[in-house]
């Protein structure tokens, strides 16, 4: 009896590992701003156009950590360029942020005026289609 339970437990763990591995394998990594990075040199509101993002995809934000940051904010923080309560601030210069399902908002709050000058971005992440 104990052997059967052990076998079922091992089989369940293997199946779970395979499912999770497949899901991660299908996530795409996007470099924000392509070769320019997360800077005012490009229009961050234009960069996402024509791209399809899915929940679980990774956005890589490259920037000079001594002169910038990335802040994950809510809609109000995005609209007003303010760091709201519960906002998550990234400051490494090479930040990898996984997209949640639905609307995701990012701003820069390092130097005054960066966000208002266009260093902000909204990304909608769709539900990932079923594996085939």
From TrEMBL:
Keyword vocabulary terms for this entry: Copper, Disulfide bond, Metal-binding, Signal
PROSITE patterns for the chain: PHYTOCYANIN
Protein name listed in UniProt: Basic blue protein
Pfam families per record: Cu_bind_like (PF02298)
Origin organism lineage: Eukaryota, Viridiplantae, Streptophyta, Embryophyta, Tracheophyta
InterPro entries membership: Cupredoxin, Phytocyanin-like, Phytocyanin_dom, Plantacyanin
GO CC list: plasma membrane
Species annotation: Cephalotus follicularis
Residues of the Phytocyanin domain: 28-127
Annotated signal sequence range: 1-27
Gene Ontology terms, MF aspect: electron transfer activity; metal ion binding
């Amino acid at each position: 009896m104990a052997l059967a339970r052990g076998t079922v437990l091992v089989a369940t763990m293997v199946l779970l590992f395979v499912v999770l591995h497949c899901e991660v394998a299908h996530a795409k990594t996007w470099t924000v701003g392509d070769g320019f990075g997360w800077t005012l040199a490009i229009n961050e509101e234009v960069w996402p156009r024509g791209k399809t993002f899915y929940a679980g995809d990774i956005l890589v934000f490259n920037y000079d950590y001594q002169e910038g940051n990335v802040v994950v904010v809510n809609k109000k923080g995005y609209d007003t360029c303010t760091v709201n309560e519960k906002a998550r601030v990234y400051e490494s210069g090479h930040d990898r942020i996984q997209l949640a399902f639905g609307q995701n908002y990012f701003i820069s709050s390092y130097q005054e005026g960066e966000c208002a000058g266009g260093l902000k971005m909204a990304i909608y992440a769709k539900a990932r289609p079923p594996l085939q």
